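Hey, can you fold this?
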Amino acid sequence: MRIDPSIAALRGNRAPQRQAQAAMKVACDDWRAEKGVAQALAEFENFGTGAALEDCPLLEDIFTGQGAAEQLMSALVSHFCAALSGNWLGHPPFRNGYDGRASTILLGKTGRAQMLLQAREPGTFEYPCATFSDALRYDATLAGSASARILRIHGPRELVSFSEEPITLRAGVRLAFDCSSEMLIAETVETRLVTLRLLQVGAPPQPGREYCRETGRLLHQSSGSLATSRKEMMVTLLGRMECTKAPPVLSRLARDEHDESLRWQAVRECLALDTAQGFTLLCQIARDMEDGLSDPAGALRAQLLETHPQLRELETQ
């Protein structure tokens, strides 16, 4: 494998890399210090505490008006291009990711708010599933063009119907979404689509939901909280480890926790590890009409009884 001499040299002397990163930090600080940027970021902090967008006039202008979003990103590009021209191994100090279809840069995160820059590659994309989360979202399209749809869900949580609104995305388009019931899908991207995005999650966030677009059925539910997601992973790990001491703990989680996504995962793993204890727990939840999990628990109970009639002996326990 060929290694460029300038990269190989870093093995023996890391000072150039440290200098490059110092230059990236200076570029970031200079961008944040610009008058318009500093004011917008101050409002972004306020937005992160739960303030409405209309209470943040500069931020509102960026995501609903014309020109302000472009100026914000033009300043960012100007500072970092100048820094990278002399430090071409430098990495801008932002979290970023690329999945083959889209690249995303996290420009800022504070409290309940995030600001991201996303570029979606040209191509045609299919969306067999639709995902909804507890967040408000504002998009400012900066460049590119795409044929897209806004999906809106209607009906009960377990089985929904969809309405669709076709739209064209291009530079200057400004959109706002309630992500709990609306989703934007870019089906055909003609030229690379670049979007500045602002998010504000709920407090506390309700579970995220994934539906089959063909049937409208709920396929998956996950916690909207990162801390709760970690607990879900721990619960799942107990199940995969076939931990025989876990069912009583899982049963308490399912009864005492407030997050429905975590509770549901605990019920599922309890069922897998100890059928009797898990099914008794499931029946208790299904019978409690004030429990938010009563409907899905009842549906799962009916499904299990149809497949395994012998479980009826446990229903009265």
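Oh, and this one too while you're at it.
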Amino acid sequence: MKKKLYISFLIIITVFFLIGGKKKEKSKVPPAYKKWLEEEVVYIMAPIEKEVFLKLETDRERDLFQDAFWKHRDPTQGIPTNEFRQEHYRRINYANHFFGRGIPKLGWRTDRGRVHIILGEPIDIQRFEGKTVIYPTVIWFYQGLTKLGLPPGFYLVFFQQGGMGEFKLYSPLKDGPQALMTSYWGDPMDYLMAYNELREMEPDLAQVSLSLIPGEGGAAVIGRPSLSSDLLIQRVETTAIRQIKERYAKKFLEYKDIVEVEYTANYIDSDSLVKVIKDRSGFYFVHYAIEPAKLSVDQYENKYYANLKLNGTVSNLEGKNIYQFEKTISLDFDEERIKSIRRQPLLIQDMFPLIPGNYKLSILFKNETSKEFTSLERNLVIPQEEEAPQMTSLILGYRIKKSTPQQDRLRPFQAGEYQIYFQANRVFLKDGNLIIVFQIHGLSGELREKGEVKFTFLKSGEEFLSKNRKVAEYQDLPNILEQFDLSQFPPAHYRVQVSLFVDGQEVLFDSEEFDITHLEAIARPWVYSKLSPDTQDPLHFYLIGTQLFNSGKIAEARVNLEKAFQKKPDSVDFALNLARTYMVLNEYKKVESLLLPFINQPQLPKYEVFFMMGKTYQNLGELSKAIEVLDKAISSYGININLLNTIGECYFQLGEPDEALAAWQKSLEINQNQPQIKKSVEALKEKK
């Protein structure tokens, strides 16, 4: 018996601490923010927004999130006053003033208060009060809210259940006409009998008791409540949440520690496209396009301008950065140009080479003029060179143009001699064209003769159209381009699958989704892109070599970086990356000969040149030279712990402990969190 009591006591204690733990977790949100979360925005906040808000750790982050929350609901962002926020708090005050009377709760907590906060005032109110045969009831009528995904007109009914307390939102299905009458003695499941009895008392009230949507007279005929009325109530409850694109909240959490503070509340939506295309030289290029939902510009006199920045990173599956880049775009327009592009979205296109492997691509787009940002993230697979055939992913365009760039230039989203025009959201006109572009690599002569490409269009999961064509019919292999007239395609959502068949067997396939719109016209984007150097340009060998180095493939990196430097021996960046490779290979004499011309040049060398040369001399045992070079770095760029620690090491190796101690102590003044340096300092002090 005692054992059972002891176990019960343990269970009670465990439950107590579990509950206590949960309460403690909730209390992490300070009271002012808790009130905002649980009272002020409870009816208009999406679950993902709440989830993100609860993950924030500082009041500064919470303030910034609140700014973003209201900004993404503001219909007129060009003016100082946030009209949505202002109207929201006006509705809360109204609800508290009028709907909390005579009941032990604030008005915003009532059903009428909730609906009023979500939808605002109805255009008409009908009251049934002071009646002996029906409970106090109010009918609200709304109209013109189709933009919110609601019917053109509808009713909402509130009644005092049992004749006391607050007014409850009426459900034709859950409550029924019988709940509105004070003395209904019929079958509680007989809605038709209750409806007929109510109609004799109050015809107008009976009219909405089975259906809240005007024109649904069938409910009264069949004597059952309308299911669509309860669906309407559910849609009303989620109206505010449905209007918001929740992606901004996820991006806020993801980028709050990356972008500057002034950007965090200003996430804008965007569409994007990322494709991998193999160049004729054998390099794989990542082609990317980003289409921000809007382009904010500033004005000075009659000129308009915007400064944009792209920061990209490519990391492997272990999270290590393999490649990173930064692009700056300066746009300026005159009055005529800004008018012509005002209704057109901007589409930024670019490309870069990438070595084989599996990666995550992340690109941050910042408008430095308006402090707005957006981003794209993709998983990338760059295939290894294999004998087996390989197919690239499909590009769906609405137009192509024969456009052969200069012989030593590459253009984003160009396959062979054709430039592909597309929109990142893949929406097409019903009287337009669909151009499908992709590549098939590794085709032997036999496969070219036997191979057949099949295009299959699926609508609602069923085959709508298919087309077969022999591989040998395509003249520009490995590039394959096929055009389809969309006039026979009704507006809908489609998926196209492209397969390579050999001897009746499917060898390769890829698919892509697209939409055909009912609209007669679409604002196609204006494109910003720049030509890139040809693959024999030293820049490409430099980029590939750097990626190989970051991947730990030092021997391959060396080959490419040496090619780059041989083609451009005056580039300090090319020299530095090659020098890093030699350092890893312990070829310090090569580092010295590589960097010596940059140390002795008239203009100030880069800091990295000083530091790497100092480390090189240290590794060669030429410690005095190392100290001399590192001292020059301090004179030119100021002190830092890396320079001081290396100087200390050199003095220690030279047998000058006092100089070593001075350098290390100065380093600890800058950063005390250096355990190894502290040990070295203590060891030197003990010897004194």
